[in-house]
Amino acid sequence: EVFLFFWAATMLVGKLRKIRRQQRAMLFDVLPSDIGEKITERNLDKFLEYISELPKNAVGSFLVTRCVRGLEHFRVRKSAADTATMLSSQSDLDASSVDSSYTMFHVFIWAIPILGFLGTVIGVSSAVGGFTDTLSSSSDMESLKVGLKSITGGLGTSFDTTLVALAMAMILTFPVSALQKLEGDVIGEVDEYTNEYLLRRLEDGRNSEDHRLPSASRNDMQDVVQAALKVHRAELEGWIGQLKTLGKGVS
């Protein structure tokens, strides 16, 4: 149990350093407005080139990875809506990855008290066996008292094993929960950044096509629609007239 405790403590230190790197990566301006206020097909490669020149410790962060995948997806699909869907899926994958990375910590927190309890059971079994040997070998009261003292001392040590194991598990529980929340907050900050500085700036040209039509084109389209409606209205009136004539002939 002591080995597992220090193993978990070492992993916690490594986890904390990783989270600090993720937090420092959030300070970078990954998508600077100097390249362009809008992200289009024309300046997309410039954004990717700028990201590739960031420090190595930032390249592997959640933020940079999310932005790069979003830009590359936008370059292939040329759709802001598809990119938003992909980024939402990537956010779920990152959150799931963070949760799964703490599985080993939860196993340690579960296993350490179990090992302490097993140590207590072994100690109690040994004490009971020693008590039986003391009763069979002791011929007077003094030797029996000496044997009982050693047995009760062993029982105290056995129960201390469980107590120490429970204390170790509690010591691990609080920092593990704090780090898990801290890393979850990083994922939330990445979501906010991509929504604010990536998705809102994507320009695929689909949202403004109708507004770019000149007024003359709109008028021509209206005339065409009206002409088509007149033709169909005339056909409909002809059919109605024939039906009326047929009805009079039947009556």
UniProtKB/TrEMBL annotation:
Protein name from the UniProt record: MotA/TolQ/ExbB proton channel domain-containing protein
Entry's Gene Ontology cellular component terms: plasma membrane
InterPro entries: ExbB/TolQ_transport (IPR050790), MotA_ExbB_proton_chnl (IPR002898)
Domain MotA/TolQ/ExbB proton channel: 70-179
Keyword set, alphabetical order: Cell membrane, Membrane, Transmembrane, Transmembrane helix
UniProt keyword Nucleotide-binding present: no
Entry's transmembrane regions: 107-131, 151-174
Membrane topology classification: Multi-pass membrane protein
Gene Ontology terms describing biological process: protein import
Compartmental location: Cell membrane
Family: Belongs to the ExbB/TolQ family.
Record bears the keyword Phosphoprotein: no
Native source organism of the sequence: marine sediment metagenome
